[in-house]
């Protein structure tokens, strides 16, 4: 059985291979999911209190050395908190994504925008541009990058996401889980761990517009049972084509699955704590 649920497996893997690795999809393959079109609940739900999400504060659970957070930072997310239970990885990522890295990253971005403007080519729309409902700006993209990137930051922390998270309630607008749910499902005690992870993710999501995006190889008939309908007011599922990877067998029509879970508003903190308490005695 795969050992993707084991800390020592990941510590060894990251110690022996420090190259960035992308599970399933790179950011460009799933970027469109971080737009109002996907992050808003259906109109037929009781969404009177739900506004278009302000997706500034993101949490990436089981971040690995993927470049997802970097892509999101480039798209204007203000704060990206990455967690993983491999201390080897967290050390590597904290060293890599230093203050200096952030300064150079945003400098490069500004330079690219300036060149695009000078050449007259239309700049790649940032997520800021795509999120017109919430962040409509009359400024040029170049100016907007200047304005929005001051203080924007990506941080890395050790956490076992199948345990209580050390974040206060409602700390995040968006949680992204790419491959981590699948890794936890390799555990013999997976169902309790998955419940704990999802209940903690629910707790730390903003009550009004909190949303969780899960990228998985598992199809809805294998994954929907993992999601507790008490916690989520709506769950949508989508597919994305598996990217072609040179040297790997590519099955035409093969897909990955993307689940978008909308936090059920108005539960307060009672429900998640209740779920956590139930788990504690299992
Ligand atoms: C399949 S990899 C995905 C990595 C990255 N999200 C990506 O898309 O490339 C799973 C990651 O989750 C981490 N992980 C697995 N179980 C975890 C847990 N219980 N708590 C925190 N991290 C976990 C592993 O260390 C690994 O980095």
UniProtKB/TrEMBL annotation:
GO terms for biological process: methylation. SUPFAM superfamilies: S-adenosyl-L-methionine-dependent methyltransferases. InterPro entries: Lys/N-term_MeTrsfase_sf (IPR051419), SAM-dependent_MTases_sf (IPR029063). GO terms for molecular function: methyltransferase activity. This is Methyltransferase type 11 domain-containing protein. It comes from Cyclotella atomus. It comes from the Eukaryota. Keywords: Methyltransferase, Transferase. Residues 112-121 have a biased composition (Basic and acidic residues). Belongs to the methyltransferase superfamily. The lineage of its organism: Eukaryota, Sar, Stramenopiles, Ochrophyta, Bacillariophyta. Residues 112-146 are annotated as: Disordered.
